[in-house]
Every structure is written in C-alpha cells, then in structure tokens.
Design goal:
Elements lengths: L1 H23 L13 E5 L9 E2 L18 E6 L16 H10 L2
Antiparallel strand pairs: 1-3, 2-3
C-alpha cells in the first residue's frame, strides 16, 4: 500500500505541475506605442511577433499563433501599411483575403 501512495502522489504532482506553472506565468500586455507617428497594420505580423490584435485568442503583444493573422496588428509608420503585401488598416482586411486566395492554388 505504501508504494501505491507514493506512486499516486508522484502522478498527481506530474499532472498538476504544468497547470501551476501556467497559472504563475506573467499575463501578456499590449505593446506600448512607439515614439514615431504610427498606425496599426493588420495581416503582416509573424506568429508571436504581433503588437496586439482586434479580436480572437491573441489580444496582447507576442501572442499571435499564425503568420499573417488578419486580426493581429503591428505598429508601422503612418502611410506604410497599405504599401506592404497583405497589409490592411482594418482587421480581416482585403490584403489578407488576397494573400489567402493566392495560397489556395
């Protein structure tokens, strides 16, 4: 019986450890605006490199799970976003749709 108690305790600790670690992780926060005049550019951020997002599971900086997520944005200098392939000033914008259409062929 003593071996069962030890084994059960070790199993419980192995199951609980990841949950406890995740609960203690710092909460991500939005990235502070840059010193230059900037705008939000949606659809160009790499996974984990976004400054924030409009909706979805990645509402704070560095939490995007997809490259080019149409709802995740990064700061760019004013006037540059619409020059970038896939860039849009609105979440889920036309740039993201055009990029998706080219990848389905």
């Amino acid at each position: 019986m003593n071996n069962r108690v030890v084994l059960a305790s070790a199993f419980a600790a192995a199951i609980a450890a990841p949950s406890i670690s995740a609960a203690q992780a710092p909460t991500p926060t939005p990235v502070a605006p840059p010193a230059y005049e900037a705008e939000h550019c949606y659809g160009i951020a790499l996974a984990g490199q976004n400054d924030c997002a409009s909706t979805g599971n990645n509402s704070c900086g560095g939490t995007s799970l997809l490259d080019g997520d149409p709802n995740a944005w990064v700061y760019v200098p004013v006037g540059y976003c619409e020059r970038l392939v896939g860039g849009s000033l609105e979440p889920g914008g036309a740039g993201a749709v055009a990029r998706d259409l080219t990848q389905t062929g």
